[in-house]
């Protein structure tokens, strides 16, 4: 799995790792650094993304598993405050984290796997365009081929 | 920082910003999603299902290879059995496709015969290169490593052959 470092010319891939957030990470998961109140999400599955050669969290994700529906819901994904907007250094943070949620879903539920999210209305079209997500009323979801494609693009593919 | 002031294309590259919904709205949305998934599922093709199962097996193999602990149940035979079962094929048919005798396949599946590199490579091509020979090989390495490190009688027997050792202190 890799991020695209735009801080070098030309932009270059850089190896990234996703792993569970530990108790020692929690004090760093602040609203100041990651723009949202994560305290309400401590009971959910929390994952962090970091560069392979750094311990610093670059992104964080909250998931809820619904085993009876073979579904994992993405509650929230956020990049660190200093990596936001047009001037950010690393691309693909959300893609890698969404791809990771898809991988977790396939590992547990095989061909029945589904990943869903409830994004803000103004962003719905953009998530669909960028990640091939499908629309189900007020939610977006991934399953079958689009879900497998995201794993291939963001998790398995090595440049 | 206000994400509403940032271009949506940039936001979706780094965030999944949730909409605010009441519990009732969430309940209705989940019902709608379940209905749509049910309709789509009825139209799912068999190859797409097999792909999902194969991907699940590959991920399970990768995670098991990565983990530090050894699980005696999850040996080469365990994953080979899963690989064959997900294709809904008879063992004799798979043996034919791999060009090995069906007795040899049975021995591999029972764990009574250790696989060799030709089997790993044939399995890679059999899966259309989806699961590499390296995955199968590493399962065997994990088994061998555990055997080497935990077989007391073998270790004691080999220890007797060692007539000298490096002097170390700390």
UniProtKB/TrEMBL annotation, chain A:
Organism superkingdom: Bacteria
Annotated protein name in UniProt: N-acetyltransferase domain-containing protein
Organism: Larkinella arboricola
UniProtKB/TrEMBL annotation, chain B:
Gene3D superfamilies given in the database record: lambda repressor-like DNA-binding domains
GO MF term (any one): DNA binding
Protein name: Helix-turn-helix protein
Stretch forming the signal peptide: none
Top-rank lineage group of the source organism: Bacteria
Coiled coil spans: none
